[in-house]
Amino acid sequence: MLIRIGTYNLFNLSAPRSAAEKERYDAIVEVIRGLDVHALCVQEVLGTSPEEAGLLLRQLAQDTGLECMTAPDPASGAPSGPAIAASQHGHPDASGAFRGNFHVGVLWAPDVEPVPGGWRAYNGLPDFWHALATIRLDFGSTPIKVGSFQGDPFRPDWRYNEARRVTSAFLGQLGILGADFNCISADTWPGTTRYYDHDPYTEQDHDLLEYQILWRDDPSEPPVADRRAAEVMRRQGLLDAAPLANAPWHPSCGHWTDAVGTPDIWGPRRIDTLRVTRRLAPGVHTHRTVQTTESLAASDHLPVVTEIEPDKA
Description:
- The chain has about 325 residues and is an alpha+beta fold.
- The chain has helices at about 20-35, 50-65, 155-170, 230-235, 240-245, 295-300; strands at about 5-15, 40-45, 85, 90, 100-110, 115-120, 130-140, 145-150, 175-180, 240, 270-275, 285-290, 305-310.
- Helices cover about 20% and strands about 25% of the residues.
- Helix 1 (about 20-35) links the parallel strand 1 and strand 2 (about 40-45).
- The chain is globular and about 60 Å long.
- The protein starts with a strand and ends in a 5-residue tail after the last strand.
């Protein structure tokens, strides 16, 4: 049996308040429907509170034909609720109005069952700039722990420490993590010591660059991508599914032009992927970045999907 799990940064997705926002929301819905996944990890679900973000996740689930309600926890007595983990960092829109914090969540197909007691929200602060959501899902065989995460975009040292916290949630598990990691992978092409991801920053020179590169005592030295967070995950057994599947390299972002016509300052790079635990790694079958006319227009990140055969894990 093959299961398909995806990850998708929804680009500041809030409840639509205008015709243009409704049009983009509908575009996101159609892209997700086209993925045909058994589970989807999503980032940048905006809401001024976790409850508001939960309502948006429930609406998104309903419109895409997916589910998002956790199972009640028999141990703690916690009731069912939307699979949303709360961030403490927000987003003002172009007018300066607060549109909500950047929450993360998980969606799954109707024939997939959430395992009672298998849900946990690692909410932002003190552990994360954004958040980590994990849930055990029964795909019809052994339950798999599925996580959604978004890394710190501004503080390389914090991003490194966040990676340590993330790996602690997956040690010894049969698990998969979908995320916008906000950093370049440290995994290598199969059978080589060559990085799967080239360094996209070597020729760049702009004010935001310091958030993505190693510190240089001499700023005239060539910039080098900071891969420390990704290296922590690799060493601790959260492995990048793309090189495991020997998939052709493809950027997950860099295509976006903003409302005033400014292109993505970072250029093409791959910061969205799925990472599997060592136990699940033998089951990785395929890995692809979904680039279509619709996905290019719907978000500044492209969705990524990995196919897994759990029976091989």
